[in-house]
Amino acid sequence: xxxxxxxxxxxxxxxxxxxxxxxxxxxxxxxxxxxxxxxxxxxxxxxxxxxxxxxxxxxxxxxxxxxxxxxxxxxxxxxxxxxxxxxxxxxxxxxxxxxxxxxxxxxxxxxxxxxxxxxxxxxxxxxxxxxxxxxxxxxxxxxxxxxxxxxxxxxxxxxxxxxxxxxxxxxxxxxxxxxxxxxxxxxxxxxxxxxxxxxxxxxxxxxxxxxxxxxxx
Length: 217
Description:
Distance between the termini: 37 Å
Radius of gyration: 17 Å
Number of strands: 6
Shape: globular
InterPro entries: CheY-like_superfamily, Sig_transdc_resp-reg_C-effctor, Sig_transdc_resp-reg_receiver, Tscrpt_reg_LuxR_C, WalR-like
Protein name: Response regulator transcription factor
Strand order of the largest sheet: 2-1-3-4-5-6
Oligomer: single chain
Number of helices: 10
Helix content: 40-55%
Strand content: 5-15%
Keywords: DNA-binding, Phosphoprotein, Transcription, Transcription regulation
Order of helices and strands: EHEHEHEHEHEHHHHH
């Protein structure tokens, strides 16, 4: 895969370059400040972009703004955002519209090499990869929220779906059969008022689209 990296921390930036090249990927460009990000993305049109949220000069949301601008120019361009903290507003904005090819991981996750590379590949393929802590924030209960109607097990299944896990992985993690997982997923869609969907990214994106609406209600 061809990757563009946007990260102002030199140590982390070089670490990402080494990690990705060692895994057989090509780093097409790196950006160390907000103004450098969008030109790099538009010039190189990578298979996936790995972006920090807060970058110079303002250290607010420069990386995210560049990612959103690039996706407006190149619809569906895969973006994996890295952040030091769970920032709900940024996560919700990135997921706006239910488009695929998005990820939001905490930087600690980069240290878990296999998990990071797996997430990168899922995003590049048009899927989703959300950090469990981000998912926990998105699933925070709210009065009269349809999520409240889910059973504890259905909430577990929804959480794993939002992380981008397939039925087999969910079954393994919950120590149940895939048939049981399919049944739980059917109940989740029914209770959330979402149309049935087959396995794959579409069902994940439907759940994420629903979760995104909760931030903009």
